Amino acid sequence: MIISETELKDILIKNHLVDESTWEEIQKEAKRLNIHPLDLMFSRRWLDKDYFGNILSEYLGVKRANLRFISINPSVLRLVPEQIAIQKKVIPVDIEGDTLSLAMANPRDFETINLVSNITGKKIEPLFAFEDEIQRALINYQALYREKYQQLLTKDVQVFEKAFLTEEEERISATRIVDNLLNYAMGLNASDIHIEIFADYSLVRFRIDGVLREIMRLPKNLHPSLIARIKILSQLQLDEHFRPQDGRFKTKLGDFEFDIRVSIVPTMYGEKAVLRLLASTFRPTSLAELGMNEKAQKLMEAAMEKTYGMILSTGPTGSGKTTTLYTILQLLNRPEVNICTIEDPIEYELERVNQIQVNPKVDLTFASGLRALLRQDPNIIMVGEIRDFETADIAIQAALTGHLILSTLHTNDAPTAVPRLIDLGVPKYLVASTLVLVMAQRLVRKICLNCIFTEEIKPYQEEMIKDQLYRSGWSKEQIENFQSPRYIYKGRGCEYCGYSGYKGRTGIFEMFFVDDEIADYLSRKEFNLVEFKDLLRNKGFKTMFEDGFEKVVAGITTLEEVLRVIKE
Ligand SMILES: [Zn+2]
Predict the structure, then answer these.
(1) pTM of this prediction?
(2) How far is the CA of 558 from the centre of ligand 1 (A)?
């Protein structure tokens, strides 16, 4: 942060935004969560970020940069190299005559002002913007990337069109192509790279915001060299072409380190490689940032106060359930608690947490790992997944004996987690006495803020909404009285969102807290899912669709997107 906590406190008090005692509490809580007091205040919505941004700019004696909807002219962007922008937390915004206005996370950083002035040969007018605003504005560089990487890649690809190619030329070009593809993918925030071969060409696709997009087609004869390069990077056997292989390696983009997980499988025309890109350190987030509304946050916070019991997160692969559990662990991560995990795979490294990787080769399974961890005096344990009776049984015993257990289950919705546990062989009364909270979630793409527009709702869309509300448990009468919004939002598609109309993702959730009444129901009666859902509904349970629909009305995502992920 650019100002000290004392300065911050002075500004807040002078502007009547906090008083002494509130400030002390904020400081205490921020320290516990290991985050900056300002981030705490923003994430809990105790302080409006935009409003405070103006106050802070005034205090710093500079203008406030409005980066929210801005698309920066490429000719201005090219003046400041992206590496400098990332490292120094600045972004050029506009140029007028001889003066370049530069949004800066720290407008007092005169060294950087001089540096950028030397690079560009312009006078610099510093503007203030928060670090995350600058980070978001860095997507402006993506349009430049596309140009740059397409050019770089084309140059090396052309080498393979020559009639005679030395081994050395082939190796050097393949190395450069793989490096450029990796940088390109990291720059676009892609989560996976697919390189596969067909009868006539080799195809490269990136998964961005959960959707695969074609990036380029390459000449077929280039494919084996790319696969070979990837095998070398991830220390796999070069001469093995008929068996699947898994490996990993690390790479860097600026200051960010990435873990790349590699999977290679034989397909009809040759080997296919899938590279999964994972940032190696977990970026701490809040429940609000995951997409939970206030009610969901309150339920989750109540569950997190428990010292024993079980919190379950459900959903298919790629629904964001692991990220949610990591966030909860991060929030619970205090020096005085012992947190252990048994995972497959370990997706991020967490500070002060003992993380164990499942390894079938040495018989280290979720069940045996969990049993071993229980002898390590843990308070909180995350078990990657419960999928058999043995794991469920140990987890339940642990939850009964003073441990808070976090885990995931493969069910489509939250209520179904109960019959799933019963099916696994857990006695119903034990489910009742250990479950604390069950949630289900999906990830939806967010509408691109650069090209968002409103559209009148169509009759068929209204019908789809009513159909989903009916499935959510609304009565006929409630549906008849339902007031549909007149307008909904969409993204038109622009160069910053790759013409998809979407940028980034957020979660939609459903969850229930097991209170006395629910525990009583679970322990007493023969379990009936329909009846159970009715009971939850009477207690105010909202389905994922209802949560998603709220986000549609708020212009965060589209109706199509919510329906798409719910049907997955
Ligand atoms: Zn857009």
Answers:
(1) 0.69
(2) 13
